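Encode chain A's predicted structure.
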Amino acid sequence: MAGTKDAVTYESIMRDIKARKFSPIYILMGEESYFIDKICTALMESILPEDEREFNQFVVFGSDVTAGQVALMSRELPMMSEYKVIVVKEAQNLKNTDDLEKYFDHPSPQTILIYCHKHGTIDKRKKFLTKAQPNALIFDSAKLSEKSLPGFVESYLKLRQVTIEPKTAIVIAESIGQDLNRLTSELDKLCIAIPETDRRVTPELVEESIGISKEYNAFELRNAIISRDVVKVNRIINYFDKNPKSGGVFRLLPTLFGYFQNLMVAWYAPDRNSQKALADHLELRSEWGAKEYMAGMRNFSALKTMQIISKIREVDEKIKGLDNPNTTSGDLMKELVFFILH
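Encoded structure for chain A:
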């Protein structure tokens, strides 16, 4: 199974592992460590029976070994086992890879080499990937976009026979953000807390188990801004400002930026008056999501939207301490929402 024949996805790799269809070389790379770790763990738990792992499964770190040592280990025969498994973690720290590139030309059929390169991708122009391609499965673990997170929440829970309303999935995704390790940890808490008689995630359960208020969250702030509900907007800003456990007002900025960035795109859609066409143009998961952008275009002109995006960037820099001697985060957010609504 080579990495260049078919589209390689996390799901396709996990299916093949379950079916015991293994590649002699796995190159797992990218910005999203969650998928790299999940694939690596699944391979380590599936390739060898537990009683064969002590003598045939080895984990090394890129900063502790050379490429020559990895190649030598990979060429050695397994001990009374079908396979030998070599796992290179933090492989981005491995220096000269020439000896490993030579190994790629003639990999051992009895070794499965798992190469975990985190925090970025390997330059596709380099010889390393070119040499690996004929015999390797190459997976680029990209960060999920913010708009993909609610779908990830729904899918993750569905695998555990748990259902969730789309709005609640959006609230969780927007409140926790793109750290999938943290996100799945919080979802696991929900799965433990949910009663066996009703496998459904409710806003009340989310508030009770992981502390995301059903009234005070980024999703509700966005809706209040779209509908120009000044009282509700300020109530949510004050809640985040006065409750450190909420993560602070800084947690609200990505949601606001994402919305107005999409709103700018919506203004230039070929058919912005059609809910379906707009949803397709914005690559939304459902037509339902287009309603808030159609409402946004009624309340914010294209020029105002551009000015809001610029203001959000300015506030983001000031909250991070750039060119801001003493204005608090709460005051900066109040200044931002005043600018948005007036």
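The CA atoms of residues 172 and 259 lie 16 Å apart.
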